[in-house]
Amino acid sequence: MSLRDLSSYLQALYERLEKHFGKQDWWPAESDLEIIIGAILTQNTSWRNVEKAIANLKQGGLLTPSGLKMVDDKTLQKLLYPAGFYRMKARYIKAFITFLFGDYGGDLGKLLQENTESLRRKLLAVEGIGEETADSILLYAGKRPVFVVDNYTKRILNRHGVINGQERYGEIQARLMKHLPKDVDLFSQFHALIVQLGKCYCRRVANCAPCPLKDLPSTM
Q1: Which residues, including other chains, have CB under 8 Å from residue 134's CB and lie 6 or more apart?
Q2: pTM for the whole thing?
């Protein structure tokens, strides 16, 4: 697929998905910290379970940097239980909070003002934050034009011939960002639409008949 064809294909894919699913308004959160905690908690679980854990944190008055710093490990684990892997995720959240206070004095605003490349590098050094989680933080909390590549993205692009399934995260991300306008709203909406497609139709066992992309050719 040529560079020009890939740009046209991605535009057509986006338009089909937006027409079918509509505007997504993702990420659902009341604060940047909630986005970040949600990005950590959503690893290996459904968003419904993440919402339960976040509700527990809010009910306990702990969804603040100082609250998460002061809460003891056992209490935090109990509150995060609905999200699964609660001991591990409690450790990851504590690691992020330690980083936030160590490098920025607990000021999330200062963290989000940092240069994108530098901040991404620092986030990836925090236990429990991989590329997808770091980029979710950058895009949704930091409002940076960084495309998030998740398993749905890989599966859909592989099935439609955009990638061969062997590419690494960075290769896929670079290919997408090279052929899309660098726009935060576009990246947010596109990622959310891909997630909806993956949940509804492009599952591990594909349900192609009702899929809005069923007659979209893999090459253009």
Answers
A1: 120, 123, 124
A2: 0.94
Q: Are 111 and 101 in contact (CB under 8 A)?
A: no
Cα–Cα dist 11/63, whole Å: 38
Rounded to the nearest angstrom, the gap between the alpha carbon of residue 20 and the centroid of all alpha carbons in its chain is 21
Answer whether residue 186 shows pLDDT above 80: yes
Q: What is the pLDDT of residues 159-185, one digit of tens each?
A: 998 999 899 999 999 999 999 999 999
d(CA 182, CA 123) in angstroms, rounded, equals 21
* Phi, psi (deg, nearest 5) at residue 100: -60, -45
User: What is the CA 63 to chain-centroid distance, rounded?
Assistant: 19
DSSP states of 147-197: ----HHHHHHHHHTTS--S---HHHHHHHHHHSS---HHHHHHHHHHHHHH
- As a residue count, the chain comes to 220
pLDDT of 4 above 60: no
Return all residues near 64 (Cβ < 8 A) that are at least 6 apart: 33
pLDDT value at residue 75? 98
**Average pLDDT over the chain, rounded to whole?**
95
Contact 26, 190 (CB under 8 A): no
Q: Alpha-carbon distance 91 to 95, whole Å? A: 6
Residues in Cβ contact with 89 at an 8 Å cutoff, skipping those fewer than 6 apart? 40, 41, 43, 80, 83, 128
